[in-house]
Write a structure and sequence with these properties.
This protein is an alpha+beta fold. It is about 25% helix and about 35% strand. The strands form ten sheets. Strands 36-38-39-40-37-41 form a six-stranded antiparallel beta sheet, with helices on one face. It is globular, with a radius of gyration of 30 Å.
Amino acid sequence: ENKKGSLGTSFKTVPISNKEISRVEMTPGGQVFAAAGQSVRGYTRKGRDFFKFDSNLTEIIRGLGIRDTWLWATGDYMLNAFEQQQTKIMDKYFYASDDIINDMVIDSITGTHVFNPILACQDKHIRVLHDENLMYSFNAEGPVSAVKSSAARKVLYGTDNGAFGLTNMLREEPRKLWSIVPEERAGGITCINSVDFTQDGNNEVVLTRDDGNLEIHTFDPKLNELVRQAEENVNESVTSLESGIFHIPDTVEVLLSTYTGRVIAMTNDGIQNPLETQQEKKAKEAANTTVASATSASNKAKASKMKEIKAVQKEIEAWEDKEFKIKTMVNSEFKSDMIAVNSYKLTSKFAIIPEDAAYILTLECQHPIEVVALQGSISIDLLDMDSNTAIMNRSPVDQQNSNFLLATYRCSANVNRIEIKMRTTEGEAGELNIFVIPFADPKTTRHLSLPIKPLSLHQRTYDLNEEGIPLSELRVAGNFSKQDAHGWLAATLPDIPPKVSETDETSMQFKSTYVGSVLFITYQRGMAVFRSDSVSTIMIIKDIISQDSTNKKVHLDISSTINDHSADRILDLLHPKFEYHHKLHQQFQLIEGLKEIQLQENDISFMEEGFKEVLDKAAQIKTEFEAQPRKLHFLYGIITDLYIDRAKFKGWHNYNPRVPMIHRILANYNIEDLKAFFGQPVE
């Protein structure tokens, strides 16, 4: 609360439950509603507890919506609606989402006095409800992470891959007004709002990203498009965003709360700290002044302030000394064999970057991170990132103990957030174990385990057209439930929701982010059909299903139909990548020899233009090759596996002697020779 130009605590509540507060909503009348665990409390502007509701929900409340006497609460998958009738709170309806609910907003779409929940879901859908019924849903550019009402029936949304847009929610159907997809990789959007930040009568789009970026976008009538007007980075992810007049009279401010608990206010003049105390303000003001003369009246006032500052500083040093002695005393108690548990927040995100066909592991800790250690039971390539300044050390592979990845990242001081880029190999399944050690006493580590799926580089999509694509088919029939078929997908592919759809038949589409191949899936009770232009994808799915049926001792009827043209399509998709990396590898091998000739010969005009180009671009070639030194080996493996899998489906048993012939063709790469070799039958 703003009191005489300084913000202070208006009220403080007692804990709602033994769980941390997961959501806070404020009504236009100034009432505050907070959720923790399965409980909701309401407070007046003075902090009086006027509303208590302990629900019987099984999920932790992640989202809240308050309108009149209605309350909506969302968990991970469930939305529940309640209405207060006199002294009772009645359970009115519920809705089960097909995938995780990331955010919710309440708007009036079907009528002026009708409230419709709008759900932002992990499966790239925005769902609009009328009571417990789904009115309609539509696809966004990525997993929807934030939604906010902009105006009547207009909803802003942001996605986990950095895109955002505005949609007009009509009664019959949605109409997308515009959307912005970043040309380069951007952080996922955590919050989005519509604010007249510049106070020119037109609202700007204000959004925050999980990499700490705050952006303000405005509509440019000359360009007839949305442009970025300003941005600022707060160096940690933003957890909430609000706007209004908080600290400076007649000035619209944007108020942020961050992962480590900071509260930051931003105006047109930059960032301010609204929770700064009066003593801190005096100290900062006085520290920026210089005592030039003790004779003038103004300088005497400054000298007086400096004395006051020194007194405050001594008091702070005394408190810091006391705090250090207490910490030393506490730490000495843990020198025995007892294990000290240091509780702190640690969040992780493991998201695929389609344009790079790689994953980015993001770790954010409440304390500065000292060391991150990685252990993988499968081979994983660690890739360079400009944003990652940590020092990486990698140990040799230890196959005997299934340690195919052993690496550490040592961070510099004051790093709360780290991003690690990596690429998996499809066909291999295992676990990635992560150990995080922060700068904190006593020394502790947090362990995270991430499953790596066999088709880990596939991404779920919704707009594929199978027309003209040569598809091979795998058909599975037998006495199995839809839950069993769903379990096969969850063990094989990413982006599979834990919950099985209630429809009789479910269809899904996937696309390989690296190769570009497609996968169409349809499954129901007793029948599952998988169609893809990649026989390697079909083979991986077949192996997973066969292994599961063997373990459960269930008989399945598995049949396949291979399209003879599918191999040529995959080779065409891989051709640009293989041609580029094959040429890059050859140029890299020539650099040292050509440099030696250049040193011995004063005149290199006799060289071919291609060799001169290698010398001119030697630094660039070396940088590109060292960024991904195993890329060509990775492509060799994909093409070799494609040939072997095709031979197995064709029933060709004597294919092993022909594998070295593939490597010879690839060493002297020519796509027509490669296609001709694939077309030759094996007797």
